[in-house]
Design a protein that fits this description.
599 residues; alpha/beta; Rossmann fold; Elongation Factor Tu (Ef-tu), domain 3; 4 domains; six-stranded mixed β-sheet; six-stranded antiparallel beta barrel; 14 helices; 28 strands
Amino acid sequence: MITNKEQMNIVVVGHVDHGKSTVIGRLMADTGSLPKGKLEQIKEMCAINSRPFEYAFLLDALKDEQSQGITIDAARCFFKTSKRHYIIIDAPGHIEFLKNMVTGASRAEAALLVIDAGEGVRENSRRHGFMVSLLGIKQIVVLVNKMDLAGYSKDVFEKIKNEFSDFLNRINVTPLAYVPVSAREGEGIVNSPSKMPWYKGETALAWIDRFEKEKPKEQQPFRFPVQDIYRFTEDGDNRRIIAGTIETGSVKVGDEVIFLPSGKKSNIKSIEGFNIPERKIISAGYAAGFTLDTQIYIRQGEIMCRSSESLPSVSNTFKANIFWVGKKPMIQGKKYKLKSASTRATVYLKKVINIIDASSLDTETNKQKIEKHDVAECILQTLKPFAFDLISKIEATGRFVIVDDYEITGGGIIIDSLDKSPSFLAEHVEQRKFSWLRSSIRPEDRALRYKQKPRVLIITGNNSELAENLARNLEEMLFNKGKSVYYLGISNILSGLSGDMKDITTDRDEHLRRIGELAHLFTDAGMILITSIPDLDLFEKDIIETLNSPYETVLINYGSKKFNERSSLYIDEDAPLEKSLDIILEYLRDKEVLLEYYI
């Protein structure tokens, strides 16, 4: 029979071998949630292999887990009660697999934290308590497990409760309850503990059913991270469908929407989906596509929001709490990759405010790097602005992970948006002024010799072939006039300067950073550098402009008027090539890039 019971994600965490998997196995078995015959199958397997049966075996499906006896990945399973259905995550307890635990817990609404009554509060118990708090999980029940090995002692339970409560209070975490259990014997999990008459509280299952669902996502402000844009050309279909998954809120046909960080606006024309009836409204949790009344250029990584609601922050600088699991420490000045919702951005550690030892809560304020398993309050800065929410407002767009060398090395939450401060690139340019070994030949002397002033000319538009053709012809025209000019094609960059990049789409901002550095070399030599960059946005123009400093950058918008007044020059792509070249030539003369009396 199909039911419409609500669902809830909960995570089970704790130190290795403290019995998390056994707790989950008991919950599944004692609530009748196992597939028919599953329990008997596992028991039979144990008998064949002369192994004592363990409820944890219900979860240990991976060969590595069976052989090592520890949970490595975040295994998902299900159980149900009369109140709701649960998706429960068995997160790794071993210190080496904490990043898997972060991944597993990231979608949880509540947590069970398991502590072994025999071993007591361990370092990883504190670390997991801190991580659950860091991930924004506020509903926590602590299970003091293996009470059978502690003789079901009330004193042991109270000692652990007092010790762990003292720790959690220091990080402003208050568990809903502490429950003494023996998962192996079935005491206190689903049934009341007959061997602990001194405990008058509710069972673990009863507390799980008391967890409250978070505010429905559809009641929060609308957030739609753009994952891709699809264009159709067959049979006269000219739709541009913006695709992704709605994280929060709802939207309907006709609503005005704004895309951040670009700030572009339009109205929802239609809601699209594969083989579904027409819809006029859609809400959180659905993968969907949208078409707009006005065709505007947007890119993967932007967040579509309703203009009438509270909007995300847009900045390149933010304060975050981060947990580091990388083999190498996180250091200032090194380039990392940030992933938040559909955003992919280059990010730098700008400042370490303090480092918190997650096991002792000791704070260090003079460290300049974040070591493995450190929890840090820090300031991060991206190469260009992106849209995000504070974790206290919308979790889905307030979390992020850090990638180094194609591995997840850290995860964190955004706790504050900071005003734009001097960017990493601006600081780099300032440092470059002092370290750059300048030629003894003055820029003025080069200008007189070459009869020109150095410039970077960027031709951008939606049609990369047309932009490239214009750039190549512009180079030839200026060369024939005796100018020192060079066209740097994208294919040249990709096969040379950026040949080490595996994915130019996700590494686009780093690709542009390299173009900016190369542009500075050309202009410092007194040359005019021409390049064509398809679909450039203003933030990306700023990257090249900053790095090309102190020399000027000219943006030639070839095609749709994407940048309005921010373009140096606009040329209609339907204009004849000769006319387009004449427009650029006249502009360069007016701005005295080409010294008229030398032509």
